[in-house]
C-alpha cells in the first residue's frame, strides 16, 4: 500500500467520523445536521471504497490511471463546466428578473447533484467513445 492510499483512507475515515459526530450531537450552529452528516458520511465512505478499489486493481496488475483516463476526465470536466455555466447563468438571470426569495441551500444542493451526475455521465460516455 502506498502513502497516498493510506492518506486517502485516513481522510475518508475522518470525514465519516465527522458525519457520525454531526448525526449524534446535532450541533445547534448547523442549519441542517442531517444533511451535513449525510454529506460527510457519504464523502468518507465513497473515498474509502474508491481507495480500496484502486488498491485491489493495483494488486491484480491492472493499470488504474493512464493517459487515456486523464484525457477522458478532461473532456468530461469541460462538458460539465459548460453545462454548469449555462445553468448558473440562467439561475442568476431568473433570480435577477424575479423578486423571489429562494433559499440557497436547496439550489446549491441541486447544482451539486447536477454536477456529479453530469460528470459521471460524460465520463462514461467518453470512455465508451474513445
General description of the model:
- The chain has 130 residues and is an all-alpha fold.
- The protein folds into 2 domains: 1-63; 66-129.
- The chain contains 4 helices and no strands.
- Helix 1 (3-25) packs antiparallel against helix 2 and helix 3 (67-97) packs antiparallel against helix 4 (104-129).
- The relative contact order is 0.10.
Properties at a glance:
130 residues; 4 helices; single chain; 2 domains; 83% helix; mainly alpha
Structural topology:
Layout: H1 3-25, H2 33-60, H3 67-97, H4 104-129
Helix pairs in contact: 1-2, 3-4
What's the domain count?
2
Oligomer: single chain
State the low-pLDDT regions, or none.
Answer: none
Structural class: mainly alpha
Pfam family, one: DUF2178
Transmembrane segments: 7-25, 31-52, 81-99, 105-126
Protein name: DUF2178 domain-containing protein
Organism: Methanococcoides burtonii (strain DSM 6242 / NBRC 107633 / OCM 468 / ACE-M)
The gist of it:
Helices cover 83% and strands 0% of the residues.
